[in-house]
């Protein structure tokens, strides 16, 4: 169905609500992926062990089977403490949620991007909520995020009653930079990684070869990960954790969130930076200069909610 449905889904995207109403049949991606060689990434030892059940990583250091390397992933467990996570959730729930596709809701703070035409404009973006400012400040504690300048912050809610999920994809490579950052606030979940086998023009992947990395030498590795194509890697996303995808995991693998891995309400914050051409000394820096000049301390665009938010600042 190409029309936008009341639930927010459109095209091939669907949730439990529209699947029941419009009798939409959706293939079970989990069943397909489990036919591959499956591994679970362990954030403690930076290795992946055979298995599908995400609790495999909790066996550390007593993993079963032969471990493999899976470069391009950084996970910081307990990035947020319980008090920070609780206050953050209260603050986010005071803001309006917008219906999104595949059973999700969102709150977007960032510029307008046309990925097909490769056009960037400010739109209504007027800064980030003050109540989330401390999260970006905490990025300074992570060496891999040195120099990270947030240009988009998106709150995402996954509802198990709607069968929330997100299909395999690579975040756009024309405008979104080398580090894909997610702060998982509420609800344990899993990011499922599958090798990308499509054309280089999809996701604007052809842009990557046109700019130099801003990451330290050796961090970004554009060589192929030495595992065969029939492999699935499962990355744990516990509540209050931070995840960064970069290098091979960023550009050579699609990531998804399976419906079966949403067992309770999940809320996360997704952060994006610009690609090097849109940063200082880049050929397109002038196009992004107005966006980059907006300070985090800007007044939140939802002015009518400010009196409620002061208690969380």
From TrEMBL:
Molecular functions per Gene Ontology: demethylase activity; metal ion binding; oxidoreductase activity
Protein name according to UniProt: Fe2OG dioxygenase domain-containing protein
PANTHER family associated with the record: ALPHA-KETOGLUTARATE-DEPENDENT DIOXYGENASE ALKB HOMOLOG 4, OXYGENASE-RELATED
Fe2OG dioxygenase domain sequence ranges: 150-275
Keyword Heme: no
InterPro entries in alphabetical order: AlkB-like_sf, ALKBH4, Oxoglu/Fe-dep_dioxygenase_dom
GO-annotated biological processes: demethylation
Cofactor(s) needed by this chain: Fe(2+)
Record key words, sorted: Iron, Metal-binding, Oxidoreductase
SUPFAM superfamilies: Clavaminate synthase-like
Family, similarity comment: Belongs to the iron/ascorbate-dependent oxidoreductase family.
Lineage of the species this protein comes from: Eukaryota, Metazoa, Ecdysozoa, Arthropoda, Hexapoda
